[in-house]
Amino acid sequence: MELILALAIGVLAGAGIWLLLRPRTFQVIMGLSLLSYAVNLFIFSMGRLNQNMAPVIVDGVLLEVAEYADPLPQALVLTAIVISFAMTALFLVVLLAARGLTGTDHVDGEEGSDG
């Protein structure tokens, strides 16, 4: 399971970085989204990949600290998902405004020979 998760994080990060280096703004936005998904998976995996663990402390039940699920990575990922959704929406609005003003969707504003 850890190997599959590590490969998924690597593929998402690699594809995100590759798209960040592309000349068109929509590809850059998709690269940022993929990179944020990779970071979210990485943060989520830092909370240990365990099953059937108690999510909260129950009165009258004494368990060791290691037997509880860690809620901090889940809260961080949930917050990061909301922030990345708002960031993507803002970038798409800026993309549409820039395309309307300049007539092109290239990052540098000029049509290149790469088409």
TrEMBL record:
Membrane topology: Multi-pass membrane protein
Signal peptide: none
Pfam families named among the record's database cross-references: Oxidored_q2
Gene3D superfamilies named in the record: 1.10.287.3510
This protein's UniProt keywords: Cell membrane, Membrane, Transmembrane, Transmembrane helix
Subcellular localization(s) per the UniProt record: Cell membrane
Highest taxon listed in the record's lineage: Bacteria
Subcellular location, principal: membrane
Stretches that traverse the bilayer: 25-44, 75-98
Family matches, as PANTHER family: ANTIPORTER SUBUNIT MNHC2-RELATED
Family the entry assigns: Belongs to the CPA3 antiporters (TC 2.A.63) subunit C family.
NCBIfam families assigned to the protein according to its UniProt record, in alphabetical order: PRK09094.1
Protein name: Na+/H+ antiporter subunit C
Organism: Alcanivorax quisquiliarum
Organism ancestry: Bacteria, Pseudomonadati, Pseudomonadota, Gammaproteobacteria, Oceanospirillales
